[in-house]
């Protein structure tokens, strides 16, 4: 057997001897030597042949021929090695040696065998093939990576606060305090278990509702058309894509739905290599002028467009191109984009994770940053850690002055004091309780048909102060009806409605709302239906686009061709050739309809060989929802400004705002871009405006951006693919009922019920959730400071502390009592909420000091000859333990406020812990021996540590009195205006009330407005501008 290597000048032959079978060990050795020598000769011959070939090739070429040859054959250093299936690495124990490490060959993700991607569109894939392909491609969905259950559980033991508790575990083990050791571990495990269970329960509720918004796909399998979940698609599946639907996977267009024979043509072109195979080349077709200029220097094959455009897809969310992009045979359509026109067969090319959108999403997810909620929790946790370290330092300094030992079998040592401060100084339940409060809140919102995509969206929703809402379906009922039309002179009304129906989509499965109302209005016009029965055929249908602002349909009947159109009145008027009188009357009618709040559609027709004929105008009315006006009034009382963003004409937008008592400061969107306003003036315009008309997706994005630059927390509602960028940009993106898959993916919260009232109700609930978290944080900081202050001062003053075992149980009781905080009843603020950390710290520090003073009063009374409130019958340690437990547990009733009654869950949890603390006191559990104090106390404790029932009742009564005093101080503090606004970056309550009053007066002006007066109407702080009607 011979192998040849060499160039044109000659060949080098290398012979390989093949030994016969059965030669034994010697024969095998000879074969090994022969093989090794043959390999060496091959490598040498390749080097010789390459060198000689390069020299002789260049010798026969001219100057530029050599240059071209060099360009085409040049390879970077290391390229050849890259082709090898191994790499050389140094041996760790002998760095001077190298060894070969062979790479594992892996299949490139998203690449599949060619025969997988050629499926007969009439039969589709057999069911037996689905699992095999899914094993390789995975589910067709974009989901965050599933967290390892073990890693998830371990996450409840990670964090600065938890690390301190774990340090306390090690310290307890070193001091051989095994009771403390076990209880601290129990606290850590309890927090982890509660957090895991509550988050899982909330996630299950949300997941059950997410199934209602799952994307579906029409697929051909086993020769039948089926509807399945889009996540079940696999590469090679034959899907049917129609206008109005979301593309369920990156797919290649095969042929028109009404021309299944086109599959054979598709296969022929595919075999000849005429069809583009890369998604990037297809994407470049719709990326706009700017992208083309960037890439014009790059060599690329011209795009091949076979036949006529089969589909038109909206790539605005991917490329930013506002116009729909035509897709031809073999063209790629992309996951989550919207189909605007046509109906076709397509073959799935790859799964969601390796799709164009999926690759982009993976890059976005890889760049994760800490959210605002995480930063606030880190701030609080870090501050508490610094505080506890400061108290420990003070305790050690004081201990050295009191000559306390660092460690000894006794309780009064520096390490025991350190252990006590570590246990009570960091709230181990803080991260878990706050996170689970939001998780349970997400479950509450899910019951209200609001699906929270990420928990931190609850915090954003609670702080929203401006809501940018679309009009149709949110502020209005989305129930269009056509009122009495304007019919041009000499035109039959039946012919007007017939042309309007001809210029509508005929895909009855997914009719646009405007097309639907146009077609269904023909029920009242039997003559128009008779005209449609004359055998019309559609040659070409062009859906509405924002440039021409018209729908165009080319049709024929009895051999005569017509072009029918409907659209914006001004756009239709521009193409028609009518007299000035007709045009003036047409404009007058358009203005009249606009003043009445009607959206108008002009209708015109062009017969073959003739000019365009203006037929008339259809006025459509979308009434406001019954609850919208009341909801807007309620939102303004909540400190939320509602701004309407609509694509309707300016006059229609103003009339709708007046109907909703929203205000009349409505502007054309052109003022944002072409108004010639400076940055500050444009920002003022957006802030003061009640709405914008003739808005496109880029305007929505710009409005959100300007409001955010002014420091507003902005929520944006949307439903279409075009709304995805602005939903992502907003602080809280809201996908309304019926939103597209792309809008739902970009939104933070998805609503399953229509209307503005559901959004406002969710904002109230988000504020309630926020109030629960704020109350718990204030409560928990105060608890930490309470015992830190008391323990350190008691050590310094009387050389006494509460026993470590009892300190551990106090920490456990505090966590047990607040497990039910997530289920508590809560009120909501009448303005957008903020954390106001300076206010939280001020109040918490004051509450902690008051609690410490209350404990010192109990301890100080025990120095009295009468024994104070105990009267010489009980245990000092147990009495202090009970007083601390009761006052700390009841503090949550203070910080939660008095606007609502506490929930039964919270009351039962706290009373249960109180009963347990009382039993500890009665029977003297863990009281052990007496701690000697300096100065010595005259109080004589019981020998067994028990406390009588009378003393326990006195402690309960005293603790109740302390709680009442603290409650009075707390509510008095909240009356101070300076404290109310401490740490708040936005308006105070007074500003909100004044703005609400001004808004109310403005609405009254609108209600008593006389539209028949020729003079200008007067409005508070603003004059009404001329209404521009398009």
UniProtKB/TrEMBL annotation:
- List the protein's name: Plasma membrane ATPase
Q: Which reaction does it catalyse?
A: ATP + H2O + H(+)(in) = ADP + phosphate + 2 H(+)(out)
PROSITE patterns, alphabetically? ATPASE_E1_E2
Task: Indicate where this protein is primarily found.
Answer: membrane
The biased composition feature labelled Basic and acidic residues covers 288-301
Per the UniProt record, the source organism is: Aspergillus versicolor CBS 583.65
Single GO MF descriptor: P-type proton-exporting transporter activity
On the tree of life, the source organism's domain of life is Eukaryota
EC number of this enzyme: 7.1.2.1
Q: How does this protein sit in the membrane?
A: Multi-pass membrane protein
